[in-house]
Amino acid sequence: MFIFGHIGVTLGVFFGLAILVPRLRIIINPMFLAIGALLPDLIDKPLGRVIFASTFANGRIIGHTLLFSLVLFVIGLYIYDKRREIIVLTVATGSFFHLIEDEMWNIPDTLFWPIFGLRFPKGSPDNVGIWYLIRELENSFTLHFSRPYIPEILGMAMIIILILHWLMKRFWQNKF
């Protein structure tokens, strides 16, 4: 789970799109977008690597499927139709961005589950248990210069830029 990569890259894309479509800044809450960007890992890592580790030994199961994002989206559309509330649609968007950031098209058995069967690819039994989750969380805060860590570094940079932008905006608002 690359916390900074998922949050930073998703928020970076969102704020980039908000430059082109300024209304997005008004209707979408970045906090719920960030929650959605982490949701597949928050569901799948504990389920697939700890709780059902002997069955799956895989941190990319239900939450990493297109079906999961589509169900969230449909629920979001229903709630929006009934209450004009966009929170679930925002979470669904973040969840979909997560699939893109994880390059799930490289694992079609999971992405298009259950079209190719009801089983998920089984992972390595060496990467299971609570120590796996602790190691993954620790890796999110450790700087490495390898291909998988490029989104993490970009995400950290984006989060820093967004925080600095927010601080500058507050500073100038308070000054005038």
Can you tell me about this structure?
It is a single chain. With 176 residues, this protein is an all-alpha fold. The protein has helices spanning 3-20, 23-27, 30-51, 66-83, 87-101, 108-111, 130-140, 150-175. The protein has one domain (3-133, 148-175). Helix 1 (3-20) packs antiparallel against helix 3 (30-51), helix 1 crosses helix 5 (87-101) and helix 1 (3-20) crosses helix 8. It is globular and about 60 Å long. The model has no long low-confidence stretch (mean pLDDT 84).
Head-to-tail CA distance between termini: 42 Å
Strand proportion: under 5%
Radius of gyration over alpha carbons?
18 Å
Q: What helical percentage do the residues reach?
A: 55-70%
Order of helices and strands: HHHHHHHH
Low-confidence regions: none
Q: Which class do the helix and strand fractions yield?
A: mainly alpha
Number of helices: 8
General shape: globular
The number of strands is 0
Name the average pLDDT.
Answer: 84
Please tell me the total number of domains: 1
Q: Mind describing the biggest β-sheet?
A: none
